[in-house]
Amino acid sequence: MAPRKRRAAGRRSPCPLSCALEVVGDRWSLLVVRDLLFTRKRTYNELLRSPEAVASNILAERIRRLLACGILRRTVYSRRPRRYAYALTPRGRGLLPVLQEIVLWSRDHLPGTGTPPPEALPRRARPKARTKA
Q1: Among 77, 87, 110, residue whose Cα is nearest residue 33
Q2: Among 5-14, 16-25, 115-124, which range has the highest average pLDDT?
Q3: For the domain that residue 81 is a member of, what is the CATH number?
Q4: C-alpha span between 38 and 29 (Å, rounded)
Q5: 78 and 48, same structural domain?
């Protein structure tokens, strides 16, 4: 049996879902994106203090991967010691509707899921404000 050829850019297959999962399909990457989208977290130490308690070596590797894939950008905010602030690129902000749909699915199908902040929900799913009659 002949060995399988690797696809373009080292991908397992050209399937769009498979390609996306190679970038953000691990346990931590979308949580980093979540924190940058919905909180004021911008630094490594702030991201490290997320409630899911990611290990520092895992966070560093995920940040490197997200930078390499063009999901994040970094800027120096301290020269000594060198420290970086992270922000989403347009490609990273493009994950907003994906995260919103995952939030809706989780809310609808996983008992015990917490209440997301309003900005984590698509407009169609946000609770309507009550008006006085």
Answers
A1: 87
A2: 16-25
A3: 1.10.10.10
A4: 14
A5: yes
